[in-house]
Write a structure and sequence with these properties.
mainly alpha, globular
Length: 318
């Protein structure tokens, strides 16, 4: 697979784009287990997810449930659809015949797929639980689980019976997170997981494109294969429910970040990062938003707030 054109890679590796993607996932995943004081730190900077993606800890199971029915799944589908739209607009301008648009998988690749082989398992230093999770998600048996779920989320009879929000939440936590980790590959070094927001500038190098980190996953070309597959589930749901035209989102629009994070259908950070040039208005606007996110992260650090688990994988049913 050939690399994406440099303008796209550079924009996705931009520090503002990395921070936005990290903070968006963090707030949704963490909100239900934050204290009132910790929520206030996020709130002070506008990072208040209207619909958390995971619930509080269940004392009986010791795990946190996926919020299947609060429509947070729409936020997941919408935000990434906007990212895809921004990238596609730049790819159309670049005119690279090898990358006319961000192309998703038609189906989740099987273990014997020669075009998209599963990278070998590897060790995350100092993190035995995540290391075990990586080993498990790369087993051939994991494909059987994912394929069975894929058959459900592409079945018109199933899609006709569930809401778009439930579909999005199930896809995010039962399939998408596993795809990130299954196709993640060994890196020379990893940004610490669960750390107090390590955003050292060394992680901004475009070579840091590990699929297992929300700070870097979108820099990896396979991110677009995964999210192209995810995005196609919206179209399947629309067709199964006899709908055409605009997606009937329950919110106008769904949540993609603080006020100013979206505008006229754009994913604003991606929009600016893809168009910023030294001295232009887009670069100035992007710097303003980056400065705000830098301040957010520093306040989170001072409050001792830590990042959630990397792409947590849940085993569940629609």
């Amino acid at each position: 697979m050939t690399a994406f054109p440099k303008p796209v890679i550079d924009a996705m590796a931009d520090r503002a784009m990395r921070m936005h993607h990290m903070l968006w996932h963090t707030t949704r995943d963490s909100w239900a287990v934050l204290t009132a004081d910790e929520k206030e730190v996020f709130s002070a900077h506008g990072w208040v997810p209207p619909r958390p993606s995971r619930g509080p800890m269940d004392p009986a199971t010791g795990s946190r449930p996926v919020e299947l029915d609060n429509k947070s799944g729409e936020d997941f589908l919408y935000m990434h659809r906007q990212m895809i739209a921004e990238v596609n607009s730049i790819l159309a301008e670049v005119g690279d015949p090898q990358h006319p648009h961000a192309q998703g998988w038609a189906a989740i690749p099987a273990p014997d797929d020669l075009d998209f082989p599963v990278p070998p398992a590897y060790v995350l230093p100092g993190d035995p639980d995540s290391t075990q999770g990586i080993q498990d998600v790369k087993l051939p048996a994991e494909y059987d689980r994912l394929h069975a779920l894929e058959m459900q989320v592409t079945d018109p009879a199933v899609l006709h019976q569930i809401s778009l929000g439930r579909l999005g939440a199930a896809v995010e936590f039962f399939i998408h997170n596993a795809l990130h980790m299954r196709w993640s590959a060994q890196m020379p070094e990893y940004r610490p997981g669960g750390d107090a927001f390590d955003v050292d500038h060394k992680w901004d190098d475009s070579a840091y494109n590990w699929l297992g980190d929300t700070y870097s996953s979108h820099v990896n070309p396979l991110f677009w294969r995964i999210h192209g597959w995810v995005d196609a589930r919206i179209d399947d749901w629309m067709a199964a429910n006899g709908l055409q035209g605009q997606v009937p989102w329950s919110f106008d629009p769904p949540w993609s970040g603080p006020e100013g994070g979206h505008d006229h259908g754009h994913h604003m950070i991606a929009h600016l990062a893809l168009r910023a040039q030294p001295g232009n208005a887009e670069a100035d606007a992007l710097q303003t938003r980056l400065s705000a996110m830098e301040t957010t992260v520093e306040d989170l650090k001072r409050a001792g707030i830590r990042e959630p688990a990397r792409f947590p994988i849940h085993h569940g049913e629609l």
